[in-house]
Design a protein that fits this description.
Length: about 425
């Protein structure tokens, strides 16, 4: 289901069952939709409420437990809205020293009632308790460039992907910084946590894999199939990920453990529109509904994932294995060039024949060179000398015959 918008969207977020959707726009508008109702004429979801701020919306989040909608804006404001009425209940001006990039709701296990985390372009991360008079709880500056996405793993660690090529982990139970990963091969955009691993999308099109709660060193790299980077990752079911890229309007499927690319789940819009890349993705908590957004075309697509997922088999480790031809080489094979199909005996015979051919060719070349060096008169003289030698030999033979005849005559007498 594709809905057309009249303003360029910038961000979106859905609730637990996918029935509600909040969208932020570049003109500063926040709109809250009921996606179970669709108007065929306008090709839009039913709108429950909207609120107009003074600056472009950089990120939105839904907190169903407190019935709130959070938003951060380009002019560094953090706003809180009532989810049912759309009324703004609180606004913190200049919540960051730089322009905010993203935000994330926190679990109840977070220390000191931390409810929300925000991050900005300078790499600064802050946590908030918006029920307190002094809302800010913690502040970290452990990463040097903009934070592209925030999420929380199942161990209550706040994870932050940064354009400086690192993944930062913050312990929410202790409210302190935990670890920063080794430097990756490119900028890091997206992050998705599962029960066993954490998957991070990079600018080079690879998915970086980390062990859960072990974010210092990289475990594995998986090629996604996207050339323009991985902008979003969602877990569709256990062991199956959905990937999007800003350079493609397709959603790719990636099986993990074992790692295997499973093709394309579908396209956002027309398959021929190769210039439109998916900018954002969000998934419901029950993993049945996915929303994707393309800002340039001003469209949002609702994906019913059950028909797609049901047709994809669950892969086991032996299903993804491929037989590889084992190449057994000797210690000195790297020093000698040898064909793959030649045996030792055949190679020896071929070498002997090649040596004989080389000797014959060398002798012929020497004779030809000698003939070319001599003058034509020298060649003729050689032939005449050989004829004279033959005549002398004939005369000597005749003299020997005459002497034998004379000796025979004397004996008879």
């Amino acid at each position: 289901m594709l809905t057309k918008l009249d303003v360029f969207p910038s961000c979106l977020k859905t609730n637990s069952d996918g029935s509600r959707l909040v969208v932020g726009f570049v003109d500063g508008t926040i709109r809250f939709y009921d996606t179970t109702k669709f108007d065929e004429k306008s090709e839009q979801f039913e709108e429950n409420w909207r609120f107009k701020t003074k600056s472009s919306i950089r990120g939105v989040e839904i907190d169903e437990g407190r019935s709130r909608v959070y938003a951060v804006t380009l002019n560094r404001a953090l706003c809180v809205f009532d989810m049912e009425t759309g009324r703004r209940t609180r606004c913190i001006l200049k919540c960051h020293s730089s322009k905010p990039m993203t935000l994330c709701t926190l679990p109840p296990t977070a220390l000191k009632s931390q409810q929300l985390a925000t991050a900005d372009e300078s790499g600064e991360v802050k946590t908030w308790n918006l029920d307190a008079d002094v809302a800010m709880v913690r502040e970290w500056k452990e990463q040097s460039e903009e934070i592209n996405e925030l999420t929380v793993d199942c161990k209550s660690n706040l994870l932050a992907t940064s354009s400086d090529g690192t993944l930062g982990a913050y312990d929410l139970r202790k409210a302190k910084f935990k670890v920063r990963s080794e430097l990756m091969h490119s900028e890091l955009f997206a992050v998705c946590g599962t029960n066993r691993n954490v998957y991070v999308g990079g600018e080079d099109g690879y998915v970086e894999v980390f062990n859960l709660n072990e974010y210092g060193n990289l475990l594995e790299r998986i090629e996604s199939g996207f050339e323009m980077g991985v902008n979003g990752i969602v877990e569709l079911r256990s062991g199956l990920l959905g990937l999007i890229s800003g350079g493609s309007n397709k959603m790719r499927l990636l099986n993990v453990q074992p790692s295997k690319r499973l093709g394309i789940a579908g396209c956002h819009g027309d398959e021929k529109d190769l210039d439109d890349g998916i900018d954002a993705i969000t998934i419901s908590t029950d993993k049945r509904i996915v929303y994707t957004m393309i800002s340039f075309s001003q469209t949002i697509k609702k994906w019913e994932m059950s028909p797609i997922i049901d047709g994809i088999p669950i892969l086991r480790a032996q299903d993804a294995k491929t037989k590889k031809k084992r190449n057994v080489e000797g210690f000195f094979d790297g020093m000698v060039e040898k064909g793959d199909e030649d045996s030792d005996e055949d190679s020896d015979d071929v070498d002997d024949e090649e040596e004989e051919e080389d000797v014959d060719e060398e002798e012929e070349e020497e004779e030809d060179s000698d003939d070319e060096d001599r003058a034509p008169g020298a060649k003729k003289r050689k032939v005449e000398d050989s004829d004279e030698d033959v005549d002398v030999d004939d005369e000597d033979e005749e003299e020997d015959v005459d002497e034998e005849d004379d000796n025979d005559g004397e004996d008879e007498q």
